[in-house]
Amino acid sequence: MTTLRRFRTDDLFTLNNINLDPLTENYNISFYLTYLARWPDYFSVAESASGQAMGYVMGKAEGRGKEWHGHVTALTVGPAFRRLGLGKQLMQVLEDVSEKIYNGYFVDLFVRASNAVAISMYEQLGYTTYRRVLEYYSGTRPEDSEDALDMRKALPRDVNKESVIPLKHPVRPEDINFD
Amino acid sequence: MSKRPPGARRKAPTSAASSRAGSASTPSPAAAAAAAAAAAAAAKKAVKEKEVPQWQINPIYEALDSGNHKLALQQITKLMKKSPSSHILRALRAIATVRLGNRDEAYQIVRKVMAEKPTDLVILQTLVFSLRALGKKDDIVELHQTAYEQAANDEEVANHYFMALVRTTDFAKWQQVALSLSRTYPHPKYRYWNVVATFLQAMHTDRNKSTVLLTLCERMLQKLATENKIANAEQLGLYIDVLTALGRDKAVIKEVLDRHLHLVKVEEEVWRMHLDLLPSGEERRDLACTVLKKNADDWAAWTAYLDSVIALDTPVDDVNAYIDSMQTSARTRGAFLAALEYARRRADTDPAPMAAYWQFIGHKPCFYNDVTPYLTAYRDWVASLTHVVQATPKSATLGVNLRKMRRHLALDSIDSVDAILDEYLAARSVDEDLLPTERREADEFIALAALYLVDGVDKDTVVLDGRVVRAIGLLENGVERSPKNFQFKLLLIRLYLHLGSVSRPLALFESMDIKSIQLDTLSHTLLESIGDLGYLRAAQGFIHESTRIYADNERETPEMVVQAFTHGTVTQVPDFIRFYFRLAKSTARMVARAESWRWSLVAAHRDVKGLKRAVAESEELPIDMEELYENRDVTVMERFVERKAEVLVPPPKDRVFLEMVARAQRVVHGVVMGDAELVCENVKVLMDEEDARYKAVAKVAAHVGMSYLEATAEEEQAKDLGEHLTAILDVLRAAVERVQGVVGGATTINMPVLKALTSVVELLHLAAIATHPSTLVTDKKPPAWIKSAVTKYRADLQPIVEAVQSAITEVQGKMTSTATPALRDAVTAARNAHAGELSTLSDAWVAQVGDDWATALSSIGDQAAQLALVVRA
Prior knowledge:
Protein name (chain A): N-acetyltransferase domain-containing protein
Number of helices of chain B: 43
Strand content of chain B: under 5%
Number of helices of chain A: 4
Keywords (chain A): Acyltransferase, Transferase
Number of domains of chain A: 1
Oligomer: heterodimer
GO molecular function, one term (chain A): protein-N-terminal amino-acid acetyltransferase activity
Structural class of chain B: mainly alpha
InterPro entries (chain A): Acyl_CoA_acyltransferase, GNAT_dom, NatB_acetyltransferase_subunit
Family (chain A): Belongs to the acetyltransferase family. ARD1 subfamily.
């Protein structure tokens, strides 16, 4: 049982069961609040019947012309609430917002090339790998850096699904600026 | 080429994560273009004013941008020979000066330029760079206010003034300027600024005034609505927030919503709002069914459905038939939990829906969490349930969930530990190929066993309870296998603190990578214990690190309020302000401040000079505690019980503590700094403190204050002074006696032992304040009656200090004679207990705990020795 609703700043104080998870990043104040100030409709939380946060998604709209799209910045589900389809529900919200509010051509996301669990989940939701981004995740040591897969799913506005035709060659992080 | 003020280039947030998440932190193209255009326009203006030509200024920007502040200063000095009154040169000079560390000089430069009332935006923004670096918030407002008064018709200056104001919390002033803007300029955004400012004023005032202000907001929004000027979902959201705050009928709110439905573009969002606003009945029920058809897991819809069928007196069979059909067609948690919720509302305790939920999702980790609110009604059913754990993921989780329910209902006890560990051994192979970052379900057996082991441990015992060591062994082995299990770590931190050890808790805390807002919600367990345990230096360090978030809040959140206004997300402004206050007035923050005050003073009390410096540097605690926010997370650590009490550590420090420290702080401040009035105002509350936990400290502080007042009275008060000093000695003697009792009975070293020693040292420190004649009287030379009273007091304190020191020595002796051997025995006993291979601790572990004890005892001993010198001097 899930209640999907807009994320509010008060929620930032009650995310520990999700954010203590090692793969979930804790951002600074400006990061969360910038998203709320600019794309409040893109920031949603999934709440349990007792009001506990189970997972959340944050995203944004960016790009020019046919590159105008919704971007998944963070999608996370608390360790106790995985494999229940919550990720799917949260992604649905983000896709709805991208399509109906921002009228984008596609939705994209970046995932660690090694994160097989996440990649397979996104594939089930209709995402395909558009390109590989070399050393997108930088670590403190060179061997810690890792490639990202840029995965995309076309929205109805992209009638011919041009936005998801895979690139033949990988790109560097500096090549993917949408601003 | 136009130039922006140096440093205007926004730096990426410090969080390493931001680089991974793409370019979220960079300004949008539109914002950047607008900023550039504004700077260009402003730069042109600067040229028109016959300032120094731009081409001569550019090299200065370049020097500042590249961090070459000395070069910039040389260039400025050279140009200033020709243009000594140039605003831009002087404003840039201030930046270079502040960056070279000459803060006072920089501030003087800025103030001189400000006195000439500049209105040029480039000058204003350049001055703001220095003022912000100097932390002069009020000056930033003043700067813009003056410019606004000078150039009342300049819309851009007015905008900047408003943005300077919204970095403060002076909502009345926000409102004043927003109102004036909305009257002068046609853009409707100013009217929304006015509504937001009025709304915030309403949120921060008394009820009567609040209603008046909210009604005003409502009228302004009604007017905007009739003019068709509610243009987006944010503005509509603000309207709804105002109506909700006013307590308007849901029907009224729904009417407003429906008139602007075209602004809500996602159908699900409309449904969600309607479900919330419709009265229970057919319409709400039908809408709920529509929503459930699309997402049978939607709990808001299920709640609305159940509300409605109950209001409509729908036959139970019909409702159950609907729920059944949803369970068959969609198979979601929501549909199954709805059956439980429906049964609960009818007080029906037939176990069928619980059994169905168990059947459906008993093998998922979320099960226990989901059924917690319903469990008590199904006690017999749970008691009759059996499950033999096997090495499959489903079986392991079923076993874990059954154990959790049994714990919740008190059907198991410490006698079940061996069986639980057997279940762990049977199940654990299923997790072996999981990544270390993944949740391992079998780990839950370990957490349960550890909790049962420590359930019965008396937190005040001064004899080592072997169950604590066995539990630590289980959890440490668990962490080795599952290095990312934060439940293990949260529990371990508490068990170690009970043992009087902090090095491992600090390392565990660090390993969880706790940062940002988590520092406010999760630091308290450690922060509130380290000092009490005697680790004064570690306490100071930990407080310093964990309170960074509050400085971040001061720096970052006001800028976010500006962003919300800039992007027109008007519903976010009140939320951001609330967020700001929740951190600025956080209980955790105030407790950190109280702890910092306590331990920094004890550490600095070598002489009057050190004490004075520490008092002067300390941050004051507020007296008005009503306004504090409680953000400390006391639920994230799972205990699987109805009432979530702390485990082996005291509950979070409360308002009684904060108020006592706030008063003591004022009394000590008054005494040390010679402020009799401050002492007078606060001494009585301390004298009347009845809470047993804080009575001794409060009494000593109060009598120190009273001694000061007697000693500084106009006439001789020898008798009264003597009485107060005697009263201090009485409290101290009683405290020492108590400590001797604790120490005498102790065979181990742990929190109660260390706390007893630390608390008496804290009392000694407070008592020693009354030994400083120079702080007791304002004259250089104390009169004879004071001198003799203090001499006697010092002499009387002497044996007390010695008693404290010998108590510390006694405990140090016990370290080798009883405490360490007992620890070693407990480790062996744990190893020999059932499934002992799961609870092994090494000799190095025993040595580490011993090292911690030694550190704490030598820290406490050093403080006592330091105070012995103070008393003797």
